[in-house]
Amino acid sequence: MCRLSHAFMVLVVLSVSLIAHAQPEKKLKIELVGDSTQTDVVGYGRGFCANLTSEVECLNEAARGSSSKSYREQGLWDKALALHPDYMLIQFGHSDLEAKEHPERQVSVAQYEENLRTFVDQARAARIVPVLVTPLSLRLYGTDGKVHSDLGTYAVVVAKVALEKHVPLVDLHAQSIAYLDNLTEVKADGLGLTKKDTDGKTVSDRTHLNWQGSFTFGRMVAVGMAQAVANLSQYVRPMPAELPAEGVRAMKFFEGAPITIVLVGDSTVATEGGWGPGFCAVMTPQVTCIDDALNGRSSKSFIDEGAWKKALGDHGDYYLIQFGHNDQPGKGPERETDPETTFPANLRRYVADVRATGAVPVLVTSLSRRNYKNGMLVQDLKAYAAATRLVAQEDGVALVDLNALSTQVLVKMTQEQADGFDAATHTDAQAEAAASGNKAPLDRTHLNPGAQRFFGRMVAGDLVRSLPELGPDVVGAATPGH
To answer: Which domains does the chain have, with CATH numbers?
Structure first.
């Protein structure tokens, strides 16, 4: 009896030990809250996270165009609090700056200070340790060769709040100026992105960061955080993080290397009646633009018929992938896919195959059809667009949300106005009409030449929001704002 009890107790102890070891160790959560200069794509976010050890879960909730006012009004602050980080690095100022543009998000300096105090109080109430960060300096050089930032007043306010509220402070504004003052203006431009001026000419973006800039200033913030909060020093890598392969590639293209972009999809992308020709037309000569999209194909049939293998053989650097129109019910078993199962599985196949070649996949949601009922746009591609967005989010893929962008334009139009985009009856529509014995209707799926240019530029303009290193290679397309 005693021997049995002892054996049972040993078994219990072993079981508890195994369960304890099976449970993953809880990581320290550090969260970024702020504007575009903190984001991953155009800010120092990815460089900051890369400089933290694997014991940290790095959360980036910074958002483009956010001020200390709009971040709260848009519900982003509540979302950031709900993630329950251990530490929160808070940086605003760029979009709070009073200027002629975007008056809805600007605040006075006094209100900016009050907003910071509220952020600190509410973070602490949620048992989060706030760390205030002064705004990253703009890279504006004077005739003396030194940086002259117009964010100095905001930096002073942040430091004042940090002192009075006993909050750790990372003085990124002062540190970034000190660093930039040792660079020439040309070298400083090598850390940033480009944008288009009012004439469509490519000029330096003195606010936002490319990959190299992200890792330079991200390291600066990580080290500054460790100095401000001593017990966080163990979570900062001892040596600066190096650019990953995708960052090295992006910098190569940003600096002018030739690029090959391959378009893959159905007839709404293809040369005859899709946005592909309009997209390729706004690429600079530095870009080889190949439109491999084919009429009538779905995410399934494009693979089954060997077209995908052929497209991969074009050895693109970037692949823009859009399906959905022919994946819908009624297209036949050789083409149809389910938006919750087979369609996303196919998209993941495309993404994996592109990445296996070392290229960059970009998912594009389907161009909206232009059919109206009772004066309202019929949005019949929602399920496939939603599936595309989900795959992009879960697999970390760049996304051009063409369905949302085209819908935003079309919902403001009447049927008659939208028909101004219609193609002369497309061969796909003719074939379907002939098969049913009917006269071909107006083609409200495909595009006439003017519409190809319109929606092609729309795709190009949104592409550089996700992949800003391509900005210099797009003629006249705008790069991201704050």
So the answer is: 28-243 (3.40.50.1110), 251-473 (3.40.50.1110)
